[in-house]
Amino acid sequence: MAYDKPLPRPTPLSQPFWDGAREHKLLLQRCQSCGAYRFTPQALCRECYAEEYEWAETSGRGKVYSYTIVYRPQTLTFMDDVPYVLAVIELAEGPHMLSNVVGCAPSDVHIDMPVVVQFEDATDEITLYKFRPAE
Length: 135
Description:
β7 and β8 form a beta hairpin. The protein has one domain. The strands form two sheets. Strands 6-5-4-7-8 form a five-stranded antiparallel β-sheet. By secondary structure, it is mainly beta. The protein contains one helix and eight strands, in the order αββββββββ.
């Protein structure tokens, strides 16, 4: 079955992130000057404005910072998924990521809920990241 939902379009700056996801690794940029992690990929560190960074594997753990339950999707391609949770995840390493919480009823999701990343191989080229309740 073909994946029929919109997919990300990696840029030269974000390609290493998507390459890591394809290997089921959550990679983030880490500043080589101050050590701060960042997401989304940026050319400069948001903390110290340094240009040098590396791609570092993270724990994939975090907690729900904020969320909403979607009952009326913006496009019909997501109609079969409703209701679903769209959440801001605060990673253990600090950055916030927008993603879905899966693997539980939407009504079970709550602020500060511990979560862990899980990967969905959408196509041969793109693997999506989502979060599920941590055990």
